[in-house]
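Hi all, long-time lurker, first post. I run a small reading group and we've been trying to get comfortable going from sequence to structure in the token notation. Rather than ask abstract questions, I figured I'd post a concrete chain and ask someone more experienced to write out its structure so we can walk through it together at our next meeting. Sequence below, copied exactly:
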Amino acid sequence: MKSYFRYIGLVTRTPQKLAHFYGTAFNLRELGRSPEGDVSLTDGFYNLSFLLQRPDRPEPGFRLCGVAVDDVEELRERLDECMPGATLEEDEGGSHLGEFRLKDPNGLPVAVSVSNFGVPEGEPGARRLVHTAMCAAGGDGLAEFYANVFGFEKASLDHWGRNGRFLSDGMTNFAMLASAEEVQAFGRRPNLDRMYGGWSHFGFQAPSAEEIVAALPPDIGYTLRTDRPRPQGYYRIWDPDGNHFDLRSLPAWRDGD
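-- Answer (accepted) --
Happy to help. Here is the structure in token form:
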């Protein structure tokens, strides 16, 4: 079974505003809009959806990540073997969600699609999503779940320890960051990425991160991270809703860095 991260869902009260921000900054094209106001964009590989906040959805933020698979029956078998009792529930599908949804051992939702989340076949653009991260307790057990259910492999032995685990599907670097409590147990102060549990942040790569940052309008509401040394071409940015994401110049997220 082939599996790839191909979806990120942000719940927001202003889908069009966020779509304009990301579409302009990263040259994303529109996949579709729902009558309710959801907007989906793509970099040529990922579906980045902005889901209008409503009573049956959680509070605004990065709430859902998704995996495209080519064999849903094999996925059911793997899920039953790795977490008996877990279910693969049907979802809305279309341009904005997967056809199915499951929950990992920590209860975090994972969207599942057998149609690549509506993204047509093609090559991703030069500015593209290559990283997603969650903050969750569980360590090796959690990594084992994602490896056995979806077939993801270790991204780097150097990033496999008390701070978290990194897996890869060959296209996306997937970080499972240790929780604040786990980090504190080792006598370290939790950083921003570990202040809240759940889906944490995501990351873009581009030929020149500086070029993108320079083109962002001054009133867009972003903030650059400057609280620790980083090489040129590494940025942390907050979008107009306060979601944070990483931006790196090529090469980005190699060997789990």
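A couple of things your group might point at:
The chain is about 20% helix and 35% strand.
The CA atoms of residues 126 and 206 lie 6 Å apart.
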